[in-house]
Amino acid sequence: MVSAEEAVFDYICPFLGCLIASTLFAAPINDLRKSLRERTLGSLNPNPWAILTGNCLGWCSYAYYTNDPFILASNLPGLVLSFWLNMGAAKLQYLAQVDAAIANRFDKTTEPATTGTTLQENIKESLIYSPQDVLFLRVVIIWSSVLVCVGWLGYFQGHETQAIGVMVNINMIFFYAAPLETMKTVIDTKCSDSIHSPTITLNCVNAAFWFLYGVARRDIVVWGPNSLGLCLGISQVALCLWYPKSGRQEGGGEMEFEPVSTLDADPDDSDDEPEGIHPIPVTL
């Protein structure tokens, strides 16, 4: 017979945690879609999305070794969604770099350092990589190496759960620490536009439920990082309350961009800046 306390902490809390986690992972969808339409990331910080991939992949692995369906159900949707978030952020960063290359090519104040290079060469160079690609690949490579060592090479035979648990905790620290730079920006600018309010709110609620679930199961791998996440989430909520938003849309600015139709143009044939070029800043 399951007691009321066991039902709440062992079943109700993780079930609600699964629902809230899925809502948390889906929180940036509308903002990213808006950014894709406007062709700029604006104030969105995509770095946590790459860490999210490693976080969900690690928790899915931990769920496999602990046979915990709740942890698997709460992280598998986030793993799939994180791929789309990272691809969307990379697209916008590539677009920003291409627009910047075009703008620099036709900027009269540009130093003669680019003399001898064509516009196509500048664009090709801007498409070599984006910051989001680099971060995402680093996360995937690290977790792939860990899973190969644990699951195939057997370096931690008999201690697979502990090994994955340690790595998950390390990843969770980076996941929850990713907004720290944003927090510094908020304090410096005295404006919380760069904090994604829906994500932070759901993050706090999600961390609270999983903290209770980890305490109930006496699993420090679960309650440890979530207690840290809860504290950091509350700190960001406090910053949002202390430094209100300026009223701008979180998904990006109000700029609209026309298709660039002068990619094959020779900049030396005209003294005027061609129409249709609207540079956006490179997001790093």
Instruction: Write the H/E string, N to C.
Output: HHHHHHHHHH
Task: Give the biggest sheet.
Answer: none
Our Rg estimate from Cα atoms comes to 23 Å
Determine the fraction of residues in helical runs and give it as a percent range.
55-70%
**Terminal Cα span:** 56 Å
Give a structural overview.
The protein is mainly α and 284 residues long. The protein has a domain at 4-177 and 246-269. It has helices at residues 4-26, 29-38, 47-66, 69-105, 119-126, 131-151, 160-177, 180-189, 197-217, 220-242. The protein is globular and about 75 Å long. 36% of the residues are buried. The model is unreliable at 249-284 (pLDDT under 50).
Quick summary:
With 284 residues, the chain is an all-alpha fold.
Key features?
284 residues, mainly alpha, 67% helix, globular, SWEET, membrane, Sugar transporter SWEET1
Question: Which SSEs are present, and which pair or pack?
Answer:
Blueprint: H1 4-26, H2 29-38, H3 47-66, H4 69-105, H5 119-126, H6 131-151, H7 160-177, H8 180-189, H9 197-217, H10 220-242
Helix pairs in contact: 1-4, 1-9, 2-4, 3-4, 3-6, 3-7, 4-5, 4-6, 6-7, 7-10, 9-10
